[in-house]
Amino acid sequence: MANPIETNPGGMAKAVREGVFAGIIAFFMFLLYVGIETYQDINNALVWRTRWELLAVFVAVAAIGRFLTVGFIKPHIDRRKLNKAKSGVLEISDKKSFFHRHFLKFALVFLLVYPFLSLLIVGKQGSLKYVDNFGIQILIYVMLAWGLNIVVGLAGLLDLGYVAFYAVGAYSYALLSSYFGLSFWVLLPLSGIFAALWGIMLGFPVLRLRGDYLAIVTLAFGEIIRLVLINWTVVTKGTFGIAGIAKASVFGIWSFDVGAPNNFAKVFGLASSSVYYKIFLFYVILALCLLTAYVTIRLRRMPIGRAWEALREDEIACRSLGINTVATKLTAFATGAMFGGFAGSFFAARQGFVSPESFVFLESAVILAIVVLGGMGSLTGIAIAAVVMVGGTEVLREMSFLKLVFGPDFTPELYRMLLFGLAMIIVMLFKPRGFVGSREPTAFLKERRAVSGSFTKEGHG
Amino acid sequence: MAPGTTAMVKDTILKVDHLSMKFGGLMAINDLSLEAKRGEITALIGPNGAGKTTVFNCITGFYKPTMGMITLKRKTGKEFLLERLKDFEITKHAGVARTFQNIRLFSGLTVLENLLVAQHNALMRASGYTILGLLGSPAYKRAVEASIEKATYWLEKADLIDRADDPAGDLPYGAQRRLEIARAMCTGPELLCLDEPAAGLNPKESLTLNTLLRSIRDEGTSLLLIEHDMSVVMEISDHVVVLEYGQKISDGTPDHVKNDPKVIAAYLGVEDEELEQIEEQLEGGKV
Amino acid sequence: MDYFIQQLINGLTLGSIYGLVAIGYTMVYGIIGMINFAHGDIFMLGGFAALIVFLILTSLFAGIPVAILLLVMLLVGMLVTGLWNWTIERVAYRPLRGSFRLAPLITAIGMSIALSNFIQVTQGPRNKPIPQLVSDTYHIGEITISLKQLLIVAITAVLLFVFWYIVNKTPLGRAQRATEQDRKMAALLGVDVDRTISVTFIMGAALAAVAGGMYLMYYGVASFNDGFIPGVKAFTAAVLGGIGSLPGAVLGGLLIGLIESLWSAYFSIEYKDVATFAILAIVLIFKPTGILGRPEVEKV
Fold first, then answer.
1. Are B107 and A455 within 8 A, CB to CB?
2. Residue B131 lies in a domain
3. Do B53 and C300 touch (CB under 8 A)?
4. Beta-carbon separation of A318 and B117 below 8 A
5. Alpha helices, H only, A237-386
């Protein structure tokens, strides 16, 4: 029958069959949504036209993709696995490169010089984009994901409404600074405390729920807070949002308000530019991130942190050891919420404007995705995931050269979330435990060895 | 009875009075009373479905009994009504620790970490509920050292010291059983409840377990255990209680229980004459 | 009183739609223990399929009878979304079965984001209005019942009956129930588990597609982000009724529909969703497994 030495013709036939099958499936899947375009004509009536070329592209991509996967990629991967197994080489090698060992130090130094580096390379006007859109944007998500990591990654509680605490922090700053004129440095800790209190208030009744019930209730709370922000117009101005929120100052010494006598640029005799404020904010959020990381690392080695991880592994065993699981869950919830609150007040100070639009479920989903994609519990992995996912979608905004390829109508931003969603799926399929799947033990007798991800559990909720 | 204990009359550590537990229409435990003495190993035996684990779950607070009273008396003389406490309070305040029939370890934590989690309450207090610990108080550092020492002590006793830094999920089955016992001991209990500690062990492991349990008793912790392995029960128990259909059918020393006709009938479900017949058939190689 | 009955009817109509979508959530959860976050977007795809079929048929065959039009809209929607959900399960969920529990949840969320943005990209971000399909109304005293409301309730009832029959009376339903109880054991006894799960996804999608088509007919408009809010509400309904329980999903759907319309009528329309979610939280706090959910006995 099939010749085992040659490139397996039976396999080829199978690949062709699968490819044709995939093409047929794709044809029917995309026939209506891609093959037909609905649009409104001049009379505002909905009409349709066909797009057969685009449909053909979709079908071809599906068919050829499937053909290549079955015919070439999969056999290749299998062969490689087989060879590896034969030669007896384990996938993990103990020797790490110099760069790998000192990765964290390099990363930190890079972050510290990043704003100046971008000033040097692209100048003041160009840096705005790199410092703000990339630097600050990514670091906000790093901080949020690290905060949520305490709840989901360590304590194993699935929270789908984390954005609620972000909102509480942002509105605490926006409202208290506009109504009472309090400064950023007073409100930053206050916002964290408010968010933590909300975490306790919301957490107390629901934390005895298990698993997916907890997930849906946290989602519901997230939506409730957003809806209240929309509808309680007297205080929150509803969907219009709160604008003109005061900027943060350098501990009250130098201000970034243009008219102020102690304006930062004026004091130092620099040409006026908004880039100084962005650079200042960059360092603020960097400091907040480092604080989050420091507290997380310290807490993990404290009894409370170990109890969180134990809770993720087995709640019943925790109770049998005399651990008050409700209190333990509440502290995880409140600590996570607190960091969300810090990030929120920073967000308000950075934007100068908050509205309920910024606190939709999608944000919670993105933050959760970053935590899981990074590898639950691993700070490094989560930071990498934030850079890849948030930075990746930001890069897409910049790809104006794509217009040359796809024509002037092509707006890459439109594809941002589509690609984000697809990336989430693809990363999970290839790395279900995230980028960093192993866990660092918090104590050791003789030597510290990372615990493989296959032993850790993901919590009951 | 047991060697090495003082000659004074042993007082009761655990007293179960008229305990009943109903699941829907099913009476899992029916008016059960039993006692466990301080410094003894009390075994709870009975056929499958007799309600042994249910009794355990009532004692350790995982179930709330329908009726009855469970009293635990600590060394200090302080008494606790266990049916009124929450499960974690029973361990925390009343000094009762337990293991599970299906081993429940924190499999992603290392062996050492498992034992440190068990010392949660003591460490929490020492760390000033985390705040002093975050500030790096010396008292907390001392407490951490003490906790690692305690863990090391139990690791040595349970013969796990070489695996201290491995994930608990990586241990072989027998070692996991011993780790679960060591972990329970790290909570500093006065009464240790073991749910089938010898299940799934080979004869050699079973022997090591017997030694471990005896030494736990000799160090002053009372034990209550559910066991199917009669070699373990008869070997190490000071006192045996037999359950059937949620009721006590026999209570006394291992020898007394072994010869109690009610117990034999309960286990084999047949009268003595029939038993002989069955034995004959077995020897004949049928069945 | 009339006003109350009027709201009751509106609530039942909406509740039927939520109930149909909720069944998909609850079935998938029951059989593989996963929250299929993309299910709301499947509902949206069903609505869009109906919309596009509507446009094509009305422009090619002017004067086509409404009954046939509606039937074709719903049928095509069922087929297309069934195919989508089958493919999604094959590509995105099946490889992760038995893996880390949060992984399929994350792919489902990713799928939800991808699907709604796919429609946004291919069909545009604007709302798509269509003319009234059925506009007859009946008056009983002060109460107004529209034909489309009757249709929605009737179609839901018929589908529920068919669905109930499949689950309870056919070998396929038996395989589904067996897989739900114990997947490994079912596989050992010769149930084709993969196929059963695939069929479950197709059935859930078909019901959601009908709901999507009826939603379009009821409100006369479709939008790419229609999947989220109804999806979350349907999921809320499934949890409220007791996730995993089929009658629970329908009951939960009807309850959510009623709460929504009664709250809008008597309190404030702005806070109707707050009321829905608050009632969910309260029910779960007092009855953690939902109204018809099996009480969870903690296995120690």
1. yes
2. yes
3. yes
4. yes
5. 264-267, 275-300, 303-313, 315-320, 325-351, 361-374, 379-386
> Which residue in this structure is represented by tokens 């959760």?
A368
> Would you say residue C126 lies in a domain?
yes
Which residue from A48, A215, A432 is facing C96, i.e. has the nearest CB?
A: A432
C290 within some domain: no
pLDDT of residue B4: 43
Tell me, yes or no, whether B121 and B136 share the same domain: yes
Q: Is residue B41 situated within a structural domain?
A: yes
* Residue B161 CB coordination number (10 Å): 17
Range of B145's domain?
109-184
Q: Quick one: B125 and B160 in the same domain? A: yes
Please give, rounded to a whole number of angstroms, the shortest distance from the CA of C289 to a CA of chain B.
17
Distance from C-alpha of B284 to C-alpha of B278, rounded to nearest angstrom = 10
Q: Say what the pLDDT of residue C43 is.
A: 95
Q: Choosing among A320, A326, A331, which should be mutated to test the B contact, i.e. which has the most B CBs within 10 A?
A: A320
Whether residue A144 contacts residue A208, with contact meaning beta carbons closer than 8 Å, is answered with no
Residue B56 lies in a domain: yes
Number of domains chain B is built from: 2
| Residue C298 contacts B where some CB pair is shorter than 8 Å | yes
Q: Which residues contact B53 (CB under 8 A, 6 or more apart)?
A: B101, B195, B226, C300
Q: Token digits for C201?
A: 């996804």
- B57 chain-C contacts, CB cut-off 8 A: 300
Q: Specify the pTM.
A: 0.84
Give the 3-state DSSP-derived string for chain C, with helices as H, strands as E and coil as C.
CHHHHHHHHHHHHHHHHHHHHHHHHHHHHHHHCCCCCCHHHHHHHHHHHHHHHHHHHHHHCCCCCHHHHHHHHHHHHHHHHHHHHHHHHHHHHHHHCCCCCHHHHHHHHHHHHHHHHHHHHHHCCCCEECCCCCCCEEEECCEEEEHHHHHHHHHHHHHHHHHHHHHHHCHHHHHHHHHHHCHHHHHHCCCCHHHHHHHHHHHHHHHHHHHHHHHHHHHCEECHHHHHHHHHHHHHHHHHHCCCCHHHHHHHHHHHHHHHHHHHHHCCCCCHHHHHHHHHHHHHHHCCCCCCCCCCCCCC
ipTM, two decimals, is 0.87
Q: Which domain holds residue C74?
A: 2-228
How many structural domains are present in chain C?
A: 1
Preferred mutation among A30, A52, A212 to probe C, highest tally of C CBs within 10 A? A212
Residues contacting A273, CB < 8 A, separation 6+: A124, A125, A265
The upper half-sphere exposure of residue A244, i.e. CA atoms within 13 Å in the direction of its Cβ, equals: 4
What does the pLDDT look like over B143-154, one tens digit per residue?
888 888 888 898
CATH code for the domain in which residue B237 is found: 3.40.50.300
Distance CA C115, CA C125 (A): 13
C-beta separation of C217 from C52 below 8 A: no
Residue B100 lies in a domain: no
pLDDT under 70: residue ranges of chain A: 1-9, 87-101, 211, 258, 269, 272, 400-410, 458-461
Residue B124 Cα to chain centre, angstroms: 25
**Domain closes at, from B184, B211, B244:** B184
> Would an 8 Å CB–CB cutoff place A420 in contact with chain C?
yes
In whole angstroms, what is the distance from residue A400 CA to residue C167 CA? 53
pLDDT surpasses 70 at C83: yes
Domain termination residue (choose one: B150, B168, B184): B184
Q: Check CB contact under 8 Å for A425 and C111.
A: yes
Q: What is the mean pLDDT of residues B92-121?
A: 88
A210 and C288 within 8 Å at the Cβ level: the answer is yes
Contact, A184 vs A177, CB < 8 A?
yes
Q: Which CATH class is domain A123-430?
A: mainly alpha
Domain boundaries, chain A: 9-85, 123-430
* B interface test, pick of A445, A447, A456, A458 with most B CB neighbours within 10 Å: A445
